[in-house]
Transcriptional regulator MraZ (Nocardioides aestuarii), 142 residues
Amino acid sequence: MFLGTYTPRIDDKGRLFLPAKFRDQLTEGLVVTRGQERCLTVWPRPAFEQVALQAQAAPVTDRAVRDYTRLLFAGASDDQPDKQGRLSIPPMLREYASLTRDVVVIGVVNRLEIWDSGRWQSYSDTHEESFSDLGQEVFPRD
């Protein structure tokens, strides 16, 4: 399970050190995709394979399915951390998420998200107010 918030930096070659506590969970490989709200999502390969299976099962006749799968898979990059635990982020994905140097990596249960630090701060500030109310909407009580 991925938990926590970390603040690595992207180097001049577009690489970032993955938080050490996550590296073992990504040794089988990973897939980086566009995420919602202009962040990047890092999926362990087995988790992304489950997403791919769901996409294959979805009706291709549904326009929303076509649109979503096109954008998700066209922007996907499969990789493996190097021996130092670094992840190379392709230029197209760095541009999509406006990633330059200072980033925030957050654990989101079955995946990681990589955010531009300013964008994460803005998102977090905006949604902090409604956090307690969201819990009742997202996880309704029986």
